[in-house]
Each structure stands twice: as structure tokens, then as C-alpha cells.
Design goal:
The protein is α+β, with helices and mostly antiparallel strands and 195 residues long. The protein has 4 helices and 10 strands, in the order βαβββαβαββββαβ.
Length: 195
């Protein structure tokens, strides 16, 4: 009688699951960001951002976002509300800085991921614009991410008094509509150390 039963159907082939490294990675708020975290992303070079030769003093950021891959911190962006004078009118902007992506995971959109999360948070902080400083080779990257170059000299505070920012200054709107979309006219002076 058992010979009369149909043969069991073959088990379906297992569906391959993507490897953890190929899953989309999300940015999350970080409770803190330390020198050890920076080293985890960029290594222990003495000047990981390539800006030591500017001679500027920089402010730490107070809000941090990061991306982890397989338990390792691989990307970061920090935010800091800073005062600015534009054409003699004082306002605040959200300073963006400490943007870093580990060399072995570049080209996967992690700069976009971590900056998008940081800017989503910045939109809730109040100011109309975000501002960052970058080395000239990074301008094209930030332009692809929607940032615009601010032409002309930008002054930043230093212990000895205002100094011309030697890096490129870039901005992006944080508010929708005509008023929030354009950078105001006038000379720009960050009324703090740069971020």
C-alpha cells in the first residue's frame, strides 16, 4: 500500500538572504561622539580631515548621527547651532561638520545617508540654513548632495580676532518656500569658532 503513495514533492530551494553588508544601512542618533569613534571611522591619522594647516580652532558638534555596519561605526555627521552675521543682520545657522565615511565603505551612499538624517533633525532646530566648510576636492560631493557654494570671503572667529575661512563654504536650505530657499545677500561672518 505504501508503494501507492505519490513521492513527496522536493523541498523548495532556500531563498538566499542578502549579506549584512548589502542591506541598506540607516543613520541613527549617537549619544556621544569621541576621538575613539573618529578613529574607528578614519583611522588614527593626526589630521584625519586634512585641515590642520588652516591653523583654525574648531568647535565640537553637540548633535551626532552615525551609521553602523556589522557593529562598526562607518559614517558620522555632527550639528551645532551657531550665530552668524549676514549683511550686518544677526541670525543662526546649523553648522554641519565632522562628516566622515570610512574608506572601505565609500561609494555606497553613506555620506548621503548620514547627512540626510542630520539635516532632517536640523530642520526641527529652527534656523533656515545649514552651513559647512570643506576642502576643495569635496565640493563636488556636497553639490551632488544638494549643497551650494557660498562665493566670497567668509569670516570666522578665532582667538586673535576674525579670520578669513580658507576652506570652501557651502550652504543648504532647511526651510521650504522662497524665503528659506535663498541665502541672504551680504558679507558673511560666523560669530563663533567654525564647526
Amino acid at each position: 500500500m505504501a508503494d501507492d503513495l505519490p513521492a513527496p514533492a522536493p523541498a523548495p530551494a532556500p531563498v538566499p538572504m542578502p549579506a549584512p553588508a548589502s542591506l541598506p544601512l540607516a543613520a541613527v542618533p549617537l549619544a556621544a561622539y569621541t576621538r575613539a569613534d573618529l578613529t574607528e571611522i578614519l583611522g588614527d591619522a593626526p589630521d584625519p580631515f586634512g585641515v590642520a594647516d588652516t591653523g583654525l580652532t574648531w568647535l565640537p558638534k553637540d548633535v551626532h548621527f552615525g551609521v553602523r555596519a556589522e557593529g562598526r561605526l562607518v559614517a558620522h555627521a555632527g550639528l551645532l547651532r551657531v550665530p552668524v552675521s549676514i549683511g550686518g543682520t544677526e541670525a543662526e545657522v546649523i553648522g554641519v561638520g565632522g562628516v566622515a565615511v570610512a574608506a572601505d565603505v565609500r561609494g555606497r551612499g553613506l555620506a548621503r545617508t548620514v547627512l540626510s538624517a542630520a539635516l532632517d533633525h536640523a530642520r526641527m532646530m529652527g534656523p533656515r540654513h545649514a552651513l559647512l566648510f570643506c576642502r576643495p576636492p569635496l565640493v563636488a560631493l556636497y553639490e551632488r548632495l544638494g549643497w551650494r557654494t557660498l562665493e566670497g570671503n567668509v569670516y570666522v572667529e578665532q582667538s586673535a580676532g576674525p579670520a578669513v575661512m580658507p576652506l570652501r563654504t557651502m550652504w543648504t536650505p532647511l526651510k521650504e518656500g522662497q524665503e528659506g530657499a535663498a541665502w541672504p545677500d551680504g558679507d558673511v561672518r560666523l560669530l563663533s569658532f567654525p564647526m
